[in-house]
Design goal:
This protein is mainly α and about 450 residues long. Helix content is about 75%, strand content about 0%.
């Protein structure tokens, strides 16, 4: 095992960070960065404070290359706390150093040589991950950061962009700041961010006015994060945002932008619910255009299909004008044949099928809430035929199985005795028994629920 060697090497590497030769310092910082990425569990706990202080010091190193490696090491070190952060712990090992870490990295961003050796990018990415993986006891520090970053963002609009280099620097900085806003809004509560959100949204809308795909790719997830915090109150930004959302949905060439724009539409739909209805004609037209375009990248298709379900759940009965066309597209997608011998395509088709199932679930739930389930009955045979294919598909993964079981339960619960004869089939029993035998407790629990509602439907 490499563990003992890593543990013994860290003190030596830390001493080499102060070697008189810049190439030695650079290599030592690079090695520490890789250890933080790949073998962090082997760093002795008693060395952790020394390691952090050494990296903080090296961020101020005269050589941009060494400083950039130190920032990357801090990024990798902070990334190791993602699992703890997901559990919303009160404190973690980073907390006592957080103020110093953030102040140091902000100074790095302002260095006159920050354009060299990817230094500004490394520092800003480290800031974002430190924010994302911070514990609850440093939330007051995070709250102070928001107005500071609003000022930094405002300053970018005054940056000169006479040539391509200046323009790239400006757009790169704005993209990095969008990522910081996303991290802050994922961390802070509504009461803290609400007073600043009008200003932040104005800044993000200004970024969307520029024709730069890289900025937009960072901007839309930041807007999603804002909508998650503001919930129904986000609706007031929709009039100003809608043209840029539609433009993003139609950006078939920069398909990564199209994907994040679709994700943002789904997030906003879930957050403002029925308030999205006035914008749905334009949104649905753009989504349908993307599916009909033969040149669009295949990775756009799954999120677009999922978005149908998100919108249906948000607007309920108002989804009726879009039902026929979206169901036709979903049924077309479900008829795609999966190759037997191409692992990449099998993985993609599993993702596609998962998205189809998720869309069906959203549409069923939306129509149920809108008392329009009778309009879905005509599609049940096609949906059940798709489920039968999945039940017998050896290449089906557990994510598909889980979504298929959920859809079976939703259909049985929503339509009950109306579909008794159609759902009382061997393939339904197979899906449910496969779920029970999966070894996944949450899937077994869903299978148990679905079995109960299917039994009730068959007996009704």
């Amino acid at each position: 095992t490499i563990g003992p060697a890593v543990s013994q090497s860290v003190p030596v590497l830390l001493s080499l960070l102060n070697d008189p030769h810049v190439m030695v310092r650079d290599t030592a910082a690079h090695c520490i960065s890789r250890i933080c990425l790949l073998h962090i569990r082997f760093i002795p706990t008693d060395i952790f404070p020394t390691l952090l202080q050494a990296l903080i010091a090296k961020c101020g190193e005269g050589s941009p290359k060494v400083a950039s490696q130190a920032c990357s090491a801090l990024y990798n070190l902070a990334s190791a706390f993602s699992e703890e952060a997901s559990q919303q712990q009160e404190s973690n090992s980073l907390s006592r150093y957080m103020q110093s870490l953030l102040e140091t990295l902000l100074r790095v961003c302002d260095r006159p040589d920050a354009d060299e050796a990817n230094l500004r990018v490394a520092a800003m990415e480290a800031i974002s991950v430190l924010i994302s993986n911070s514990a609850n006891d440093v939330l007051p520090i995070m709250a102070q950061l928001l107005p500071a970053f609003i000022q930094r963002f405002e300053a970018t609009f005054a940056m000169q962009d006479f040539d391509a280099s200046d323009k790239l620097k400006k757009e790169q900085t704005q993209g990095l700041l969008c990522a910081v806003f996303q991290a802050l809004y994922r961390k802070l509560d509504k009461a803290t961010v609400a007073p600043h959100t009008d200003t932040v949204m104005q800044q993000l809308l200004r970024v969307l006015q520029t024709k730069n795909a890289n900025c937009h790719e960072e901007c839309f997830p930041a807007i999603s994060a804002i909508s998650d915090v503001m919930e129904a109150d986000f609706a007031k930004y929709m009039n100003a945002l809608q043209p840029f959302l539609i433009e993003g949905l139609r950006n078939f060439q920069a398909y990564q932008v199209c994907i994040v724009a679709v994700g943002t539409v789904g997030d906003i739909s879930r957050n403002i619910e029925s308030q999205i209805q006035p914008y749905c004609d334009a949104i649905m037209n753009a989504l349908i255009e993307s599916l009909k375009d033969p040149t669009i990248h295949r990775s756009v298709k799954p999120p677009v299909l999922i978005c149908f379900g998100d919108i249906a759940m948000a607007i309920g009965a108002a989804y009726q004008p879009y039902l026929q066309f979206s169901m036709m597209l979903l049924m077309q997608a479900s008829n795609t044949r999966v190759p037997e011998d191409d692992d990449d395509l099998i993985e993609y088709f599993n993702l596609l099928r998962e998205s189809i199932l998720e869309a069906y679930v959203g549409i069923v739930q939306g129509l149920r809430d809108g008392n329009l389930l009778n309009q879905f009955v005509q599609y049940v045979p096609s949906v059940l035929q798709f489920l039968e294919e999945l039940a017998n598909d050896p290449n089906r993964d557990d994510f598909v199985l889980n979504k298929a079981i959920g859809l079976v339960g939703d259909l049985a619960q929503a339509l009950g005795p109306q579909i008794r004869d159609q759902i009382n089939k061997q393939f339904v029993a197979k899906l449910l028994s496969d779920g029970m035998a999966s070894g996944d407790p949450s899937m077994a629990e869903m299978s148990s629920w679905a079995s109960q509602v299917v039994s009730q439907a068959c007996q009704g």
